[in-house]
């Protein structure tokens, strides 16, 4: 196990796993106990520099110079905005450049990063968390509103279904009523006509008896009822109303049923949210541009009004 890669474990010797080793190799960047330190130094395949671990943990680590691999960079070129070693001062690529101490430049960058850290923790992170909370609230609102809308549509649909059922039942009731009225009229006429038929049949029997009778007085008293019985009831032509179905198109049905509309306040709020998100995106982009500009300005610290010179080294 490499203890340098485990922040949650105690430091251990890289070779034997002994806890809390007192030494480390500055070249190989490994921790060593006293026993393993001797063996490590005896390895002549590469150079080694074993030092107390306390010294390593507190010592600053300078970057290696890209032009001089054996040197560490302790200076900073204001013109190239890159670290440089002492030999780089006379290097042709840095001719006429101004140099400052790398530690001073680093301290200024740390100061700037500390301000950035405070802003990230005190405002930027909070704003984004509040925005994330706003999004969650909007999602909850949309889910709740969706259920309310579906319920309202179902209830309205059931209401319309009942209204349609009421219309159907009323039409059926009306036609049944008219049917009963027609049937009652026919029955009444039928009954009257049956009485008339009975009278005619009785009259026929009476005339037939009269024809065979020898009673002159009875024949003399005969009176004809043909004129009375000749009148037939009016010819009844009884019908029921015809049902006319209206064709309701889907568009018309949708128009009659209802529609989805955005309240003016909701539209305004939605437009404000979209505009706000757009402005935030522009602010982030502007901040990034400003940050890059600020970093470029930091890279040129002390350039104006100072002309760095090193004793014993000419340009």
Task: Furnish the topology, listing elements before pairings.
Layout lengths: L22 E3 L4 E3 L1 H9 L7 E3 H6 L16 E3 L4 E3 L14 E3 H111 L3 H5 L5 H5 L19 H8 L6 H35 L17
Antiparallel strand pairs: 1-2, 1-3, 4-5, 4-6
Q: What would you say this structure looks like, in words?
A:
The protein is mainly α. Among the domains are: 1-59, no CATH class; 118-241. It has 7 helices and 6 strands, in the order ββαβαβββααααα. The strands form 2 sheets. It has a 3-stranded antiparallel β-sheet. Strands 5-4-6 form a 3-stranded antiparallel β-sheet. The longest helix has 111 residues, at 102-212. The radius of gyration is 56 Å and the shape is rod-shaped.
Low-confidence stretches: 1-8, 299-315
Strands of the widest sheet, in order across it, are 2-1-3
- The count of helical stretches stands at 7
User: How do the SSEs run, as a string of H and E?
Assistant: EEHEHEEEHHHHH
Strand composition percent: 5-15%
**What characteristic shape results from the CA principal axes?**
rod-shaped
Rg, rounded, reads 56 Å
Measured as a percent range, the helix fraction is 55-70%
How many strands, which pairing sense, and closed or not: the largest β-sheet? 3 strands, antiparallel
Distance between the termini: 50 Å
The overall pLDDT average reads 79
Structural class: mainly alpha
Count of DSSP strands: 6
């Amino acid at each position: 196990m490499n203890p340098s890669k485990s922040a949650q474990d105690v430091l251990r010797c890289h070779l034997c796993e002994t806890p809390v080793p007192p030494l480390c190799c500055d070249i190989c960047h490994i921790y060593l106990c006293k026993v393993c330190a001797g063996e490590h130094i005896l390895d002549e395949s590469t150079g080694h520099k074993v030092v107390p671990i306390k010294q390593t943990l507190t010592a600053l680590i300078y970057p290696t110079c890209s032009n001089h691999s054996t040197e560490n960079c302790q200076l900073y070129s204001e013109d190239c905005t890159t670290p440089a070693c002492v030999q780089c001062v006379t290097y042709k690529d840095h001719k006429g450049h101004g140099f400052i101490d790398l530690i001073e430049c680093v301290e200024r960058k740390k100061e700037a990063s500390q301000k950035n850290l405070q802003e990230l923790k005190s405002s930027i992170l909070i704003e984004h968390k509040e925005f994330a909370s706003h999004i969650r609230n909007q999602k909850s609102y949309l889910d709740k509103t969706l259920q309310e809308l579906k319920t309202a549509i179902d209830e309205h649909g059931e209401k319309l279904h009942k209204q349609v059922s009421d219309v159907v039942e009323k039409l059926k009731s009306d036609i049944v009523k008219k049917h009963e009225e027609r049937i009652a009229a026919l029955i009444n006429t039928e009954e009257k006509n049956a009485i008339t038929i009975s009278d005619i049949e009785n009259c026929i029997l009476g005339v037939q008896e009269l024809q065979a009778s020898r009673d002159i007085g009875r024949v003399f008293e005969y009176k004809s009822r043909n004129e009375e019985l000749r009148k037939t009831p009016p010819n009844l032509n009884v019908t029921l109303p015809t049902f006319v179905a209206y064709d309701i198109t889907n568009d018309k049905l949708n128009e009659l049923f209802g529609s989805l509309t955005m309240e003016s306040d909701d539209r305004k709020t939605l437009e404000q949210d979209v505009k706000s998100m757009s402005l935030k995106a522009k602010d982030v982009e502007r901040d990034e541009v400003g940050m890059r500009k600020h970093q470029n300005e930091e890279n040129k610290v002390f350039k104006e009004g100072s002309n760095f010179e090193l004793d014993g080294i000419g340009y």
